[in-house]
Amino acid sequence: MFKKKTIQNIDLQGKRVLARVDFNVPIEDGVVSDDTRIQAALPTIEYILSQKASLILISHLGRPKGERNPQLSLRPVADHLAGILEAPLHFAEDCLGPQAEEAASRLPSGEVLVLENTRFHAGEKKNDPQMARQLASLADLFVNDAFGTAHRAHASNVGVADYLPAVAGFLMEREIRYLGEMIAEPESPFVAILGGSKVSGKIQAIHNLLPKADHILIGGGMANTFFAAQGYRMADSLVEEDSIPVAKELLEKAGSQLHLPLDYVIADAFDPDAGRKVIPVGDVPAGWRVLDIGPKTVAAYGTTLASAKTVTWNGPMGVFEFPAFAKGTFNLAKAVAKSEAVSIIGGGDSAAAAKQSGMAEQFTHISTGGGASLQMLEGATLPGLDAIDNDELT
Fold first, then answer.
1. Rounded to whole angstroms, what are the CA distances from 389 to 79, 201, 325?
2. CA atoms within 13 A on the CB side of 213
3. Is the pLDDT of residue 264 over 60?
4. Alpha-carbon span 150 to 153, nearest angstrom
5. Alpha carbon distance 81, 278 (integer Å)
6. What are phi and psi of 391, to 5 degrees?
């Protein structure tokens, strides 16, 4: 049960609403190239406007390191949003100071104001109270709909909640319901798929999943470290030498719960046009590296997934950005989509792979936050969620 207040628990009419959204979207040649995160925020934006409130949107974009960077301006995002919304939309060239204050004070009900990138100020990532107080002074209440930053304690998502009533938007509520309920009470058989480049980033998730998951399927570069822990020579494959002892411990602790690839696709260079071949798991020839799981692995993992009732997936199975090494990830996506399981895909690379596989519509839920969803898999708390007011009625 979602135990935080939401926008439906509070009267919005005539209020100035400050909403933290996740508009950290790719921009190419000054134009938004993928508006998935913008689309995900629309239900919350449109609901607030329908309640005759005025809406001030804040977000970060990229990593400007606390300094103004024209290449990371939110103006292209504001322009894109203006083309979607029917409501009048304004843009302020700073999120703090006189311009933001004047634009916010003049904002009529039913209209939207987008403020410039919060990370243009060093106080954002430091969760600076003065910055949080300035942001809070612009509005009557705070809505956090940025699940993608919920694992960070920043001024615009955590600090501001110290100075305003704070509620969750629809996206935040949906993410927590799916991810939280799936982790707390998954229907069995529960299968977790973990990939990506490094095992070090997934160690805590594996520990947290072991008592809950029936099967944990491993792929991606992180599998190489497990193979190195078993004594295989991995040649030029990505291996985290420092994580080999932990990988050995996990293999012993997990036993048959942890599934490793049976074969892999190796390449003679890290290049989209590299020479490649499929070999059974074992020593990798000198000068070669593992870049994908092989067809026997896909078939075996597919058999496990066919009977699953709950599936969570975080991290691709290979270098899916190279078409020649995307088959493992895409074919596994098809296997998940064909199953009758409730399927929840972590954000970031996993979400991108799901989309590119053509299977995105077949999954139950695709998260907008890679880091936040991984932190939930680890069983950790999310500062951005904790800062939202509790619903005393639940």
1. 32, 30, 45
2. 28
3. yes
4. 7
5. 46
6. -90, 105
Query: Which structure tokens are listed for 170?
Result: 């629809």
Cβ contact 276:325 at 8 Å: yes
Classify domain 186-377 at the CATH topology level: Rossmann fold (3.40.50)
Q: State the amino acid at position 358 in one-letter form.
A: G
Between CA 51 and CA 48 the distance in angstroms is 5
Assign domain 7-174 one CATH number from 2.60.120.260, 3.40.50.1260, 3.40.50.720, 1.20.120.550. 3.40.50.1260
According to DSSP, the β-strands at 31-32 and 27-28 are: antiparallel
- Active-site amino acid positions: 37, 198, 348, 371
Query: Helices 170-184 & 36-50, crossing angle to 10 degrees?
Result: 120
For 130-146, the pLDDT digits (tens) are 999 999 999 999 999 99
- Do 227 and 253 touch, CB atoms closer than 8 A? no
Work out the number of other CB atoms within 10 angstroms of the CB of residue 241: 8
pLDDT per position as a tens digit, 364-389:
999 988 889 999 988 888 999 999 99
Q: What is the pLDDT of residues 1-48, one digit of tens each?
A: 578 999 999 999 999 999 999 999 999 999 999 998 999 999 999 999
pTM of the model: 0.90
Which part of the chain has CATH 3.40.50.1260? 7-174, 186-377
Q: Answer whether 123's CB lies under 8 Å from 130's CB.
A: yes
